[in-house]
Input
Amino acid sequence: MYAATTDLEKRITRETLIELTDDNHDGAPDTEVINAVITGASARIDAYLGARYAAPVNPVIPIITGLCVSLCVPLLFARKREPVPQEHQTREKGALELLQEIKNGNLVLSGITGRTLAQSSTLNKTRHFSPDRISGF
Output
């Protein structure tokens, strides 16, 4: 997971976090709900970054945590069917655009190992069906 409850509390107030996650009405943020939302947002990030980087990304750099929080907050509002404040809609949109730029290779994550692709097992081998060998058929 790319974020923690404390990261969410830096973006929204603890009171708001309680309102959006306290399903058992004990007056505290529900850890299971928060972890489920963070896991979902982290998986979404991995779907984008997996095109260029080994996912999950390790080490977790601050930009990834910020992107995760930007994706989590609207999910928290949505689960309670509350309107997402414009600020958080804008942050989510920006996060998705940034992830797309990273996926497309226009931005690079410093300090993160790129994804290695498997080597071809047929590279530099004799071709059985080359144009010269099948020209008479």
Summary: DSSP finds five helices and no strands in the chain.
